[in-house]
Fold:
Amino acid sequence: MRNPKDKDEILNSCSFFYDKEVGFENDNPICLEIGMGKGDFLLGMALNNPNINYVGVEKYSSVLSVAIKKIREYDLPNLKVLNMDAALLGDIFKNNIDTIYLNFSDPWPKKRHAKRRLTSDVFLKVYDGLFTGIPHIIMKTDNDNLFAYSLESLKEYGYTLDRVEYDLHKTDISNVETEYEHKFSSKGVNIKFLDAKKYSRDI
Ligand SMILES: C[S@@+](CC[C@H](N)C(=O)[O-])C[C@H]1O[C@@H](n2cnc3c(N)ncnc32)[C@H](O)[C@@H]1O
Structure:
């Protein structure tokens, strides 16, 4: 994505970057969306669930600036953002995350790039240190290969797949759409969904 003209102004004036020293100043659960993109999911979730705190993590400031521009129209005490690579999340959170959402993560189709997938063991290891209780990951994707890979990777890493759906929009699962989800489902692509927990911390 090209840098929006007003990117620097938007980032410099953003008042809702997550600060680990300050946190949310309440004891409500904290959920992360990793790779939040332009923020539709995070905004919808924060509006629907005022008693849950949300942090959106996005690697690219150009993309994040588009999300910030949308989010700043609302005054939401339960929504904050971080401009960083998920690989470094252990520097920010320690045993205080309830659920991680992975929405339409980059598929990295080449085998030699598999470790860059957000459900590879490299990232699952990072996530281990973030959770407050039972590790809990919820994922949606349009991509069959990434989905098949993630099911295996999560199982191998000790997660139990509590729910797996191959056509999310035909289920009763309550859902807030993301930008990519809207794009793919309007083209007729089925949205894949999984909800996984690691009940044993041994692995
Ligand atoms: C395909 S987009 C999906 C955006 C949004 N979640 C959606 O569903 O519309 C994937 C996003 O994840 C971000 N991303 C990829 N790898 C990341 C990482 N390691 N850490 C943080 N963000 C990442 C990308 O920059 C991109 O904005």
